[in-house]
Design a protein that fits this description.
The strands form six sheets. This protein has a four-stranded mixed sheet. A four-stranded mixed sheet has the order 4-5-3-14, covered by helices on one side. The chain is globular. It is of the alpha/beta class. The longest helix has 14 residues. About 30% of the residues lie in helices and about 25% in strands. It binds shikimate-3-phosphate. Shikimate-3-phosphate binds next to helix 5.
Amino acid sequence: MIIKKHTNLRGEISVPGDKSISHRSIMFGAISKGITHVEGFLPGADCISTIECFRSMGVDILREGDKVRVEGKGLHGLKAPEHVLDTGNSGTTTRLISGILSGQDFESSLNGDESIRKRPMGRIITPLKMMGADISGSGENGMYAPLTIKPSHLTGIDYNSPVASAQVKSAVLLAGLYADGKTSVTEPSLSRNHTELMLKGFGADVISDGLTAVICPPEELYAQDIQVPGDISSAAYFIAAGLIVPGSEVLIRNVGINPTRAGIIEVCKAMGGSISLLNERSAGGEPAGDILVKYSSLTGTVVEGDMIPTLIDEIPIIAVMAAFAKGRTVIKDAAELKVKESNRIDTVCEGLKAMGCDITPTDDGMIIEGGKMLHGASINSYLDHRIAMSFAIAALASGECDIENAECVNISYPNFYDDLARLAGN
Ligand code: S3P
């Protein structure tokens, strides 16, 4: 895919539904009593993988565009799948579903694509085993997918997670739905809390206290109507484009701005970006608003600490903004970048270096000396949707780029290039 340099991006855009919330709406709907209606669902490949996994376990799920109807089976109504469940490229599907499967009275196996088989599953296998789950993996030390899960009796635990990961937290809380006694998860920094918020809506007894979330097993969960706000991780590309493409002014409508997700807004402000939140409201229990950005002269910043989990998926596009900002940007405490769909420390540094940026990878992030004139380049996306989208924006602001395997945006934002072209007036 060739992306050319552009100026003056002007207009409004609505990004597709939040990926994390879309996954959870299907999963929690499937194990509830009654019919869950979802609006604003993200029809990206990852969330479709979640739908297919639950269809394989006997759940009737009807999808028309971004509207989904899930006929819930109750906590104990899933059926044994006849095949290995295919989680595709989706870490969220793989890890969250493992928590649910640990509590079922049937055996199941999970597998995904080449990237999923390289992503660490020890982080869920360890706590699920502590709860009594009979879960085993493959590869080195049995810590990778494919995973096999056999029926077992679960007992609640108090888990101190070594990583701030919503996928780990959610897997343990979901297993907690099926455990004897209460289950708690404490994280080193707070990760996204969609599971806690949505499970409460489905009637579960979940208490969040600082870095700890506690769940007590319910008799049943009950169906909900869910409105999914736009995904701030998808909005991030247009936020960045508005800030770094000269002459731009972009309004992004209906974006989820849950504080556990909205770190990028703080970073843009710290870089001197003109960014404002309009029309703040609540969309289905999640805060949402419109985001207005205007072209700005950016300066470097430091991104670190507790803020990292609130913007972990936005770091590739933050690095792109930093390349266009005056001065140094340091990104640290973000070693998690190495275990995403690609090793994002390596893939971001490789791409930005190819464009002429002065960028140095570190063990837990990167250092960017911004403000140098960048040029077009050939960019390998490594099949990572967030790398493809980040470099499409870098190309707009600098020079023609050829993005390899650009269609991987399908994972989280199938119409990304069309929306970008529309905003560019093409
Ligand atoms: C997600 C959690 C994050 C994030 C991923 C979606 C979720 O992963 O990077 O894109 O929906 O729970 P980790 O839990 O591994 O940090």
